[in-house]
Predict the structure.
Amino acid sequence: MDRLATNKSRNPLRRLTSSLRDLRERHRDRHRPTGFGFVFADRVDYLDPERWDSVTHGNTVFLRREVLRVIENHGPENIQPRYAMIFRDDKPAAALVAQIVGVTGDRLNRAEPADKAEGSTRLLKRMLAPAAKAATSNLRERILVAGNLLSWGFHGVALAPDEDPAQLWPGVAEALYRIRRAERLGGQTNFVLLKDLTARQTGLESLRRFSYRPLKTDPNMVLEIDPAWRTYEDYLNALDAKYRRNAKDQAKKLATAGCAMEPLDDLAPCARRLHELYLAVQSHAPVRLVTLRESYLPALARAAEEDFRCTVIRRGDDILGFVTSLRDGDTAIAYYIGFDRAAAANGLPLYVRLLHATIADAIAWRCKQLSLGRTALEPKA
């Protein structure tokens, strides 16, 4: 969200008076009911499924009840899901998915080059700066996140289509306030985030009354899928000669090394190896708020069914890399990836070839775009 412009008085006393008045008004707004009704739950199945679906239908795949159950039962050990439904009289007006995440110093204290300290890494370190003054090994923080820490994108709130978003955001803020207050039994929660809001979300100005402020992260890298592309070969033919040649050379290099790329329909028998490859990538991240459990991806594949795909690179019986794709409406998501870092260091182009597999998935699904997260400049180019 862009920085808001304000007309400041040149009179210092008037500015101070105005600031104090604004502080009092915002404090009052935060501590009085908005007039909405609420239902809160620790599990999605505690909520009325018809009412939940009436608000979330046609929204992101990450608000589907079967996917939320996977996160509850197979998600990272340091997150606790929370849910809220917001009502205007008897009518469901909004649905909220939140996660309480426990953050410890070992998940933050990886050294990184100055030019890499961007986006979500920099944002989190700015947030935790006061707590980080303590010894890192003793850092224990709880963060309430409206959204999904296992994805990137706006996956935390669904608003009824016939409602004015500007009127509903105060209800979302009150729901988060109530969740935070109720969680005092589990420990103090010092930070509240509304994750990955974009220009597509309107009415956000009303959140400023509740002391929410925007923090920029790196952009989500998106590849627009040309409707004329019917196959991956169509995509290659649309590339500049340099990139087309590079893609074909990389495929040839894998084939020469005895590697084959193929779909993996049943993840369960390979779950341990996939998790090893995932950890090989995840362990190098400067910030690791959450770590997937071994059972997560196989469970998600079962829940998402035809909206989930996994591609692996094999050399003989050994899996050297994998990538998963999710179909989220007309967007394909290049989801979790893992690869053998030793094999990659020896020259096998595992990472880029796996990302190209997600392009093939997006085209096969007839999606309009592929979300590559906050990385993957080369395939997008």
